[in-house]
Amino acid sequence: MNVPSRIWTRVKAVFTGRAIHREIDEEMRLHLDLLAEEYAHDGMTAEEASRKARRRFGNTLLMRERGLDVRGAGLLGDLIRDLAYGLRVLRRNPWFTAVAVLTLAIAIGANTVIFSLVNSLLLRALPYPNADRLVVIWSTPRNHPEQKFPGTSGAYVLLRDNSRLFEAIGAARLYEAFTVAENSNGANWERVQAQWFTQEMAAVLGTRPMLGRWPNDGDDINDLFIVISYGLWQRKFAGSPDVLGKKVLLDLGVATVTGVMPPGFEVLNPDAEIWIRQTVTLPHGPVPRSPNRIFTAIGRLKPSVTLEQAQSEANAIAMQLVEQLPEVQRGWDMKVESLQDVYVGRIRKSLLIFQGAVLFVLVIACANVAGLLLAQGVARRKELAIRSAIGSNRWRIVRQLMVETVLLALMAGLVGLMFASAGLRAFIQFGPPDFPRLSEISMDVRVFGFALLVSLVTGFVFGLMPSMQVSRRDLMAALRETSRSATLGSQRQRLRSVFVVLQISLAVVLLIGSGLMVRSLLLLNMAQVGFTPQGLVTLQIPFSRSVYYKGAGNTPAGGLMVEFDSRLSKLTELIRDRLKGVPAVESVTVAITPPLGGMPRRITFGRENTPIAPSEHEAWTAEWYPVTPDYFETLKIPLMRGRTIGAGDTSSRRAVIVINSALARQFFPNDDPIGRRIQLDLLDDQPREIIGVAGDVLQNRYDISAQPQVYVPQDQLPWRMDLNIARQVLVKTFIIRTSGALPIAAVQAAVREIDPTAAISSVRTVEEYAGAQLQDLRQSAALLTMFGTISALLCVIGIFGIMAHAVMQRRNEIGIRIALGASAANVLRLVLRHGLLLVTMGLGFGVAAALVITRVIQTFLWGITPTDPVTFMVVTVALAALALIACYVPARRALRIDPIIALRIE
Amino acid sequence: MAMKEIDLLQGTLDLLVLKTLGAGPMHGYRIASKIHQLSADVLRIEEGSLYPALYRMEQKGLIESEWGLTDTARRARFYKLTRKGRREMQKETESWVRLSTAVARVLKALEQGA
To answer: In terms of domains, do A417 and A318 share one?
Structure first.
């Protein structure tokens, strides 16, 4: 027989297995008959002959199995028969099957969801050609190598001109915002996120505009050229191809559109919709103390250049930089990081932690189902023993059991996949909007493969252990055993105990991990923010259009300098006054950085008449808040000493400043700061007299204590400044204390009364966006808590199962004890002892493991250490209580055993 | 069965079956009794070994089988050599003869006190 026909015979045999059985039976019968005839011929009686023949012939059943092995369907047929049998077994125990499948499905589903995220974000490449060769070159302060900053213009130029391992290096300014109008007359303008790209970025990224081109050398260096996003193109230009060459008005000036990027194009800022060509040159003139570190260098490595090679080249260039620009580069290193890592750096760790956590859940679920299987195995021992007695070999039995568990796991995998796809849809819909590359998250072949692999491995692992148990012992003993024997399945019981201890330990680790996060959240929620956020509404009015300022040459540091229009300050005051008349408005003040609203500008300062420290990381720095009158009153920031900034602190009066308690404590530890003067490192700024000390305000919900802070009157800001600072100052945040719902239309109307061109944006309550800041931590905590809860639940089921089983098994013994006069307490103690031992061991191992493992979530914790005793205590006690209940309920059943019935059951 | 019966070496059974079938198609019982008879009652084929051996060789394509009628008009499965089986039989016979003569020679030489 050739190979194909042999395979065909086998496949056919799968369906004709019964016929083959019959044939083999017939062949055997003939042989037996002939044998019996021979014996009869020798003079035996027919009956004797037949018996002797049969004895000689041996086990026909076994022979049939062997015959089928060879002639029949073999492995394939066996597998199908095993599957059919397995399905029958599972159907015979619907409850067991349902519980096992559901338990595993939850665990597999959770694993699949997290893996989908890992797959989409960590494993799948970024959407650029050869994205693995894209890197970011950061500047890092030597004393804080973990912090990553954009670099100075000098750093970029030197890198670009001296590096030999890159195909191209571009520079980008990632987070900018401009107002853009749809034509050069300024009609229909809106504020959009933008990025500056040097021309090299086109070569670095390798992504072509879907329409038009990137700006190139042919475009006049003195004019503005932009490419726009697909979304902006659709929204503002109705997707018309006429957009190419169109002139639009940015608040920087008139810009020409040269291209439209494909949908989904982004570089480290998914909101950017405009990319503006910029040129970066070496700074000239005197070097500023606080140079602008705003250029993020992004490079494309030459093929087969490693990250390490690029890093050592960057190190050399960084040293060269310190020599050439010592004032700005001393104390700064360079760090090369792959773009992929930059993208997912923030979430990589949490994803890996979650993947670890769900694996714990999976192990716990497996332990649970394995426990169930072991318990069930007791019932099936006789069945297996009989099969073994009639000739099934050990391999056959193990294979049968494995097929059953794998079948179980595959069913669970299928249900788990359904859970996962629902869960993932929910995540994309309700997930954090700032989650990187959210729209790209999906389930693909790799995810299905993962789910299949997890199911198979799961099935094998927890199937193997019980079946090894089955096959190791002498199954014949099972036939002789009756349920009377007290030692029945003691080994099995031991294995189940190990499972329960393992489960409890893992659950302890998970619960402590989530407990630590929850406690951090509670601490952060309780932290005094230093003002009263309830009832505060903020809205922004960008005055950044060039109407309100004009260029004024270069600053001494080489940046662009602008002069403010003197009308702006008055305009702000007028709007503020007008808003006070809107219903539900109690008071209004204007700030640059809203409270709890992100990163304020940091500014260096020193004592009057003493030079400010030479390098920025040795200098004193404080958060800088330009504010209008009523700021402290509106926010309800307590005043410690002196007075607040009032309407009298105008540009014509002496320059004043309010500091916070933290700064007073650190900078004036022994003196009264009131009346002292400090100098801010800001162009044209006068020394300022400290008029008040205010309470500390948290600017970030992840802060437990406040930074040094200074407040200056907006009216006293220098009238010319660096464009970068100016553009920040020009976006005014109006902070309104309300006594009810704020009528937005009335607010808009009021603003338009004063300035018809002004548009309000980002109307939000402080509570709303401050709450959003903790979103990350809240979600992490929620996710881990969910995993922890599932695992605790599984533990309770596991403990309950083993206890109930133990009581069932010792029914006779307990019955006898009760009959002989054992008290309820005696019986309870007897039954509980084992369970309590397991719980104690589990808790002990779990706490010990948690002490080591919780270190990995250190960066997710605020205000507590990873070994926070309170959390450890609470979790241990809570889990112990749960476990006790799980032990106690089945133990109580032992008390209700009626000795007479228990003994009669035999 | 006064005489002690000898256990067959693994592989030897296959050779005997092939050789027996060389005489023409026959069914399982006939193969066993023929070997028993030809070995002067020394070799007794266990049924527990015979049928698995037959199935195995059929699997390997050395023999094939079909249903037929015995002398007493009973349905039986008849086995017969394939061409491949015949080649195998010749090869195995030669190597068996070589082996047994070699063994016999060694035993004889040792007996004569060489």
So the answer is: no
Number of domains in chain A: 4
**Distance between A420 CA and the closest CA of chain B, angstroms:** 47
Q: Per the domain annotation, does A85 fall within a domain?
A: no
- What domain range includes position A824? 347-526+775-904
Spatial contact of A179 and A250, defined as CB atoms under 8 Å apart: yes
The predicted structure's pLDDT at residue A257: 94
Side chain identity at A847, as an amino acid letter? V
Closest-approach residue (CA) in chain B for A7: B59
Residues of chain A contacting B75 with CB distance shorter than 8 Å: 26, 30
Average pLDDT of the segment spanning B73-87: 88
Closest Cβ–Cβ partner in A30, A59, A63 for B29: A30
Please list, in sequence order, all residues whose beta carbon lies within 8 angstroms of the beta carbon of residue A475, skipping any fewer than 6 positions away.
A381, A384, A385, A388, A389
What was the pLDDT predicted at A342?
83
Domain annotation covers residue A392: yes
Note whether A30 contacts B74, CB cutoff 8 Å.
yes
Phi-psi domain of A811 (left: phi exceeds 0; alpha: psi -120 through 50; beta: other): alpha
Say which of A1, A35, A67 has its CB closest to residue B51.
A67
Left (φ > 0), alpha (ψ -120 to 50) or beta: where does A488 sit? beta
Write the ipTM.
0.79
Does B1 map to a domain? no
Q: Helices in A390-489 by DSSP H: which ranges?
A: 394-430, 445-472, 475-480
Using the predicted structure, report yes or no on whether residue B68 has a pLDDT greater than 90. Answer: no
Instruction: Based on the fold, state whether residues A320 and A401 are members of the same structural domain.
Output: no
CA of A85 to nearest chain B CA: how many angstroms apart? 26
- H/E run at residue B65: strand B63-69
Nearest CA in chain B to A58: B48
CB contact under 8 A, B33 and A57: no
User: A609 and A493, same structural domain?
Assistant: no
In the predicted model, is pLDDT for residue B1 greater than 50? no
What residues in A contact B52, CB-CB < 8 Å?
A: 63, 66-67, 70
B41 and chain A in contact, CB less than 8 A: no
Count residue pairs from A and B with Cβ separation < 8 A: 53
Residue A602 pairs in a beta bridge with: A623
The answer to whether residues A188 and A314 belong to one domain is yes
Sequence-distant (≥ 6) Cβ neighbours of residue A450 within 8 angstroms: A111, A112, A115, A119
- Whether residues A58 and B48 touch (CB distance < 8 A) is answered with yes
Of B51, B56, B75, the CB nearest to A26: B75
Instruction: Tell whether the model's pLDDT for residue B3 goes beyond 50.
Output: no
CATH of the domain at B42: 1.10.10.10
Tell me the residue range of the domain where B88 lies: 12-111
- Has residue B106 been placed in a domain? yes
Do residues A474 and A381 touch, judged by C-beta distance below 8 A? no
Neighbours of B74 (CB within 10 A): 12
Q: CA of B47 to nearest chain A CA: how many angstroms apart?
A: 6
Q: Does residue B85 sit within a domain?
A: yes
C-beta of residue A117 within 8 angstroms of C-beta of residue A445: no
For residue A136, what are its two tokens? 């970011």
Neighbours of A700 (CB within 10 A): 16
Q: Are A101 and A408 in contact (CB under 8 A)?
A: yes
Phi and psi at residue A709, to the nearest 5°: -135, 145
Tell me whether residues A66 and B58 touch, CB distance under 8 A.
no
- Alpha helix segments (H runs only) across A72-214: 74-92, 94-118, 153-162, 201-205
pTM for this model (two decimals): 0.63
Q: Do A27 and B77 touch (CB under 8 A)?
A: yes
Positions of chain A with pLDDT under 50: 1, 289, 483-488
Residues facing A694 on adjacent strands: A639, A660
Using one digit for the tens of pLDDT, what is the confidence trace for A500-532?
898 899 989 989 988 888 888 888 777 778 888
Tell me whether residue B7 is in a domain. Answer: no
Nearest C-alpha in A relative to B69: A30
Asked whether residue A124 is assigned to any structural domain, the reply reads no
